[in-house]
Amino acid sequence: MQDKLMSAVHFIEVNRDEMGDKKSLNMLLKAVKKIINEGEK
Questions:
Q1: Residue 17 in contact with residue 24, Cβ under 8 Å?
Q2: How far apart are CA 24 and CA 18, in angstroms?
Q3: What gap in Å lies between CA 40 and CA 12, rounded to an integer?
Q4: Taking Cα atoms as reference points, which of 32, 41, 27, 24 lies closest to residue 4?
Q5: pLDDT tens sequence across 4-18
Q6: Phi/psi class of residue 20: alpha, beta or left (left: φ > 0; alpha: ψ in -120 to 50)?
């Protein structure tokens, strides 16, 4: 689970300038929710 979160954060950090703050924050929230849901199974 930690590796997936690190990957998501790294991707967003690298692409943040192109995506903008709002879109990058939305992507991070979606990634966190997805990782949490996978962890609950």
A1: no
A2: 9
A3: 24
A4: 32
A5: 888 888 988 898 888
A6: left
**pLDDT at residue 30, as a whole number:** 92
pLDDT of 41 > 80? The answer is no
The domain limits of the chain are: 2-40
Helices of type H across the chain: 2-19, 21-40
Residues 8-27 as b or e (16 or more Cβ within 10 Å = b) = beeebeeeeeeeeeeebeeb
Is 40 a residue whose pLDDT tops 80?
no
